[in-house]
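DM from R.C. (forwarded with permission)

"hey, sorry to bug you on a friday — could you get me a structure for this? deadline for the figure draft is monday and I only need the backbone to look sensible"
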Amino acid sequence: MLKTNKVIVVGAGAAGMMAAGIAAQNGADVTVIDKNKRPGRKLMITGKGRCNITNDCDTNTLIESVPKNGRFLYSAVNAFSSSDTISFFNDLGLKLKVERGNRVFPESDKAVDVVDTLFNFVKQNGCRFLNANCNSLLVEDNIIKGIVTENGKTIFADAVILATGGMSYPLTGSTGDGYRFAKEAGHTVVSPKASLVPLESSDSFCKELQGLTLKNVSIKVNDTTINKVIYSDFGEMLFTHFGISGPVILSASSHMREMSGNRYNVSIDLKPALSIEQLDARIQRDFAKFINKEIKNSLYELLPHKLVPVVIKRCGIDPMARCNQITKQERQQLVQILKDFTVSIQDFRPIEEAIITSGGVSVNEINPKTMESKLVDGLFFAGELIDVDAYTGGFNLQIAFSTGYLAGISASRM
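My reply, with the result:
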């Protein structure tokens, strides 16, 4: 008789459900264990509740969008690419659409539809769900034997896939349990830190601008310790009571390492479509149009209302001065501020507010062709638990799907 491999998947997120469904589809007897009664809790809040499933790009582009250990993912992405993810959901009846930046979303704009589709895929392939806390792994002579639940119940298995996520959004169940399991199995865990996270600033004007969204701006992140631009981007950002956030800021945070003093600042070009000369000409036209108006009432065609008093103050211009009183030097200073609106960065927001966690199980101890541990036979890793993380735009979920797929198909063959 053919042996049916027993596989346990710990974690019912994107990576866990993909791994479970694929393992079962390939003949394994699969049990999924999760502390939440409802699977896909974190998936439900991704993409502001819309769920950016993947990015419709080629393998090289995806790898280039993973600033840390991207090359480790070549086998996983080749095994299950972005186009495979799109086909996977289409074949399951979920209609998708591609938006700016090749971001892929469900047509319904509802993350719950993605979760339901994955859950149905897992159930239809015969997986069992167990709502319980995994307390520890059962390992003998460097071979996985199963897991032990919090109430002391032992569940034996031929393979265990850890897909417990990182430490971001702990209310969804990502509380770092997988790091402990990996360490207990002898693995090195790179210290977790926030990634794709908003940034804190001590600049008082951030509170004044709270809630203001800026679209189509370009940013540069400056590392003052080496006097170098370490990241640049174009897109959308917003001001908050603590500092700055939004897509380009979240991606920028991936390039920023240890904070010390005022090591970093973010330079915002508020008018990237205009050169300095073109912007100066535009301002001169506005000043001519509003020649007898106070400057505080003459910039609303150029800038959002909230931003006007802050910009004028940073320029050192009297807000009550009329346009015909503004000197050439003051006008040039205004142009300079609009092309280089600098925000000092004090710190990252807490890891609990990060979209993903950077750090995790060292890739040096995982076989990239199978996602199996090099230290413990039959132990596999998938998703955010691994020390890889990418920019925003659907790349991180694609990592979850690719590593989940590879772990699932490999575990089924144990």
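R.C.: lifesaver. The first strand starts at residue 6 and ends at 10.
me: no worries. The first helix runs from residue 14 to 25.
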